[in-house]
Design a protein that fits this description.
4 helices, 0% strand
Length: 86
């Protein structure tokens, strides 16, 4: 499945109540980091790269602004609790 199929395409779209997969955002940031240089040959900041990075970070902030109304599932917590070793 492509990242674009699970990620909203525009900042104005409403987000469903779902937790984002952080790996997808990290993959985008990593790909941007290795594909383009931070400074151009004359030593100036590569604004195209920074604009793309800004768009990625802005899309992650949308999820932080969303209010989630998840209810705790005690039955699931008990099952998970049996496997946690402290």
């Amino acid at each position: 499945m492509s990242f674009l199929t699970i990620h909203p395409l525009s900042p104005s779209s409403t987000l469903p109540q779902a937790l984002p997969y952080v790996g997808a955002f990290l993959d985008q940031i990593y790909s941007l980091e290795i594909s383009s240089k931070t400074y151009n040959p004359s030593g100036l900041v590569n604004f195209a790269k920074m604009t793309k990075l800004s768009a990625i970070l802005r899309s992650t902030l949308q999820y932080q602004e969303e209010h989630y109304t998840f209810e705790p599932r005690l039955d699931v917590s008990h099952v998970i609790g049996r496997y946690i070793v402290m």
